[in-house]
Known about the structure:
single chain; alpha+beta; four-stranded antiparallel β-sheet; two-stranded antiparallel ribbon; 57% helix; 15% strand
Amino acid sequence: MGKPKKEKKLTPRQMKQLQNFNTLRKKLLEKGYTEKKLSFDLVKANSVAFISTLPIVLVLLVLYIVVNGVDQTASGSGFMFIIMVLVGIVIHELIHGAVGAVFAKNKWQSIHFGFDWATFTPYCHCAEALSVAQYALVIVLPTLLLGFLPYLIGLAFSLLPIALYGLLFIFMGGGDAYILWLIRKERQGVILDHPFLGGCVIFHPQHQDDQSMLAMLEE
Ligand SMILES: [Zn+2]
């Protein structure tokens, strides 16, 4: 079909997400909301995340070494570590989903997990609009729980494998950190996951002081 050049070919799942997105978007625009895209290409995001997260991870690694020194005797099972990392990657997405399900009206029914083969990135998609605070929690909690928490435990008790595990998940949370960076100045409005790109679209209400923006959606 005569699609515009370089248009990404959507999977059936993404088509469904796009339909759902367009329905909600139309409702919001009809209610006078204005939209602002905070989405990005996953390939581009991965490189931005890589460049911005790596220095933080290195600083934390140096901090660990300054505090605990380099313990040459620290040896664990590399195989076990890899298994734990793979489990962690699944748990990371599950935490996104669980927090989203807590806030979504239709709970887990509004949450979908998938894997983007083009960028080799697992993802979690929420089909409902969330407030800025709710959305920020969905984004930040996996990296707090699987990244910063193990790192701090490892730092405090001189447990190198635990600290490294945390650092790895801080590093892998770079894409999420990028989303947080994009929404850092947002206070009002509701946020929808982008149907097929990384990031999201924020809708600002006409009246910035309206307290019941989410309620309006449910009419
Ligand atoms: Zn994530």
